[in-house]
């Protein structure tokens, strides 16, 4: 017991040093989040469903609508947001406040990602839970996000340390669950929804990505990987269905060139789907926060 006591006091620095540092960081986080109107946590229980693509294109669509938007990429081990945006800028210190400025994509869109901190982007990040938790908290506390209408948080697959840290750090985050129509994806997404229910998180709604294939030649829709599974999932859990994004060759071209499909010249089925999704989310967030506020009154 004596050794435990001394160990505990040592961690607190005798005068509560660690606790004091955490309290200061909590204040910084609270101050930062207070200047961000809506926080959207994009997640799914399964990898490969296009969370990052949905995050980037929704953010770009909202920015194109005139909103001030930030993207926080908390996929520590496999960040892809900078590549999808063709962003090579690194994070730089703000000389005025000692904070870090997010990388600027355009006048309305800003990004923070682990990828922007690596000298060599092919370097693997070998971090365990506590270090990932600390990094995510720093991405909020030590970044000069400024006044934003939306902060979109892109997550890794699963329901692990990153997800629990985000929900604890940003308790008013509105979760957007991404799935594809197939049962193999829906099975994992059901687990993710169960996780969110257990965590008493606020779920904004469900997005069905890769919803059918639009032929680039005739425009006819082909149910290559089924269609409608996401809508059925939303109905089963009484969640809003925010939209369906079809498979579209334009999305592949956009990802490889580092330009969101919603910013490509010309029209495409995926572009229309993402613009509609952004409009649906912009319409849904106000109602969702009003419901949350009334339920906690």
TrEMBL record:
<comment type="similarity">
    <text>Belongs to the Mrp/NBP35 ATP-binding proteins family.</text>
</comment>
<dbReference type="GO" id="GO:0051536">
    <property type="term" value="F:iron-sulfur cluster binding"/>
</dbReference>
<keyword id="KW-0547">Nucleotide-binding</keyword>
<dbReference type="GO" id="GO:0016226">
    <property type="term" value="P:iron-sulfur cluster assembly"/>
</dbReference>
<dbReference type="InterPro" id="IPR033756">
    <property type="entry name" value="YlxH/NBP35"/>
</dbReference>
<dbReference type="InterPro" id="IPR019591">
    <property type="entry name" value="Mrp/NBP35_ATP-bd"/>
</dbReference>
<keyword id="KW-0479">Metal-binding</keyword>
<dbReference type="GO" id="GO:0046872">
    <property type="term" value="F:metal ion binding"/>
</dbReference>
<comment type="subunit">
    <text>Homodimer.</text>
</comment>
<dbReference type="GO" id="GO:0005829">
    <property type="term" value="C:cytosol"/>
</dbReference>
<dbReference type="GO" id="GO:0016887">
    <property type="term" value="F:ATP hydrolysis activity"/>
</dbReference>
<dbReference type="InterPro" id="IPR027417">
    <property type="entry name" value="P-loop_NTPase"/>
</dbReference>
<dbReference type="GO" id="GO:0005524">
    <property type="term" value="F:ATP binding"/>
</dbReference>
<dbReference type="GO" id="GO:0140663">
    <property type="term" value="F:ATP-dependent FeS chaperone activity"/>
</dbReference>
<protein>
    <recommendedName>
        <fullName>Iron-sulfur cluster carrier protein</fullName>
    </recommendedName>
</protein>
<feature type="binding site">
    <location>
        <begin position="45"/>
        <end position="52"/>
    </location>
    <ligand>
        <name>ATP</name>
    </ligand>
</feature>
<keyword id="KW-0067">ATP-binding</keyword>
<keyword id="KW-0378">Hydrolase</keyword>
<keyword id="KW-0411">Iron-sulfur</keyword>
<keyword id="KW-0408">Iron</keyword>
<dbReference type="InterPro" id="IPR000808">
    <property type="entry name" value="Mrp-like_CS"/>
</dbReference>
<dbReference type="Pfam" id="PF10609">
    <property type="entry name" value="ParA"/>
</dbReference>
<comment type="function">
    <text>Binds and transfers iron-sulfur (Fe-S) clusters to target apoproteins. Can hydrolyze ATP.</text>
</comment>
């Amino acid at each position: 017991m004596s050794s435990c006591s001394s160990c505990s006091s040592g961690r607190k620095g005798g005068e509560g040093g660690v606790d004091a540092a955490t309290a200061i960081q909590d204040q910084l986080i609270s101050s930062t989040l207070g200047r961000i109107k809506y926080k959207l946590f994009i997640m799914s229980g399964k990898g490969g469903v296009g969370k990052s693509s949905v995050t980037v294109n929704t953010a770009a669509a909202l920015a194109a609508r005139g909103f001030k938007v930030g993207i926080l990429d908390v996929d520590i081990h496999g960040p892809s947001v900078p590549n999808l945006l063709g962003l090579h800028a690194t994070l730089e210190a703000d000389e005025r406040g000692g904070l870090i400025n997010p990388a600027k994509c355009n006048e309305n869109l800003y990004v923070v990602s682990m990828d922007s901190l690596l000298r060599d982007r092919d370097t693997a990040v070998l971090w365990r839970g506590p270090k990932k938790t600390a990094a995510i908290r720093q991405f909020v506390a030590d970044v000069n996000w400024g006044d934003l209408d939306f902060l979109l948080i892109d997550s890794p697959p699963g329901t692990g340390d990153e997800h629990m840290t985000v929900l604890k750090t940003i308790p008013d985050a509105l979760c957007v669950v991404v799935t594809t129509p197939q049962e193999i994806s829906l099975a994992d997404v059901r687990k993710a929804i169960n996780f969110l229910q257990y965590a008493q998180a606020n779920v904004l709604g469900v997005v069905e990505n890769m919803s059918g294939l639009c032929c680039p030649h005739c425009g006819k829709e082909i149910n290559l990987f089924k269609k409608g599974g996401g809508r059925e999932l939303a109905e089963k859990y009484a969640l809003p269905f925010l939209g369906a994004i079809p498979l579209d060759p334009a999305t592949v071209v956009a990802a490889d060139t580092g330009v969101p499909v919603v910013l490509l010249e010309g029209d495409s089925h995926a572009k229309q789907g993402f613009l509609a999704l952004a409009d649906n989310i912009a319409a849904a967030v106000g109602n969702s926060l009003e419901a949350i506020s009334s339920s906690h009154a």
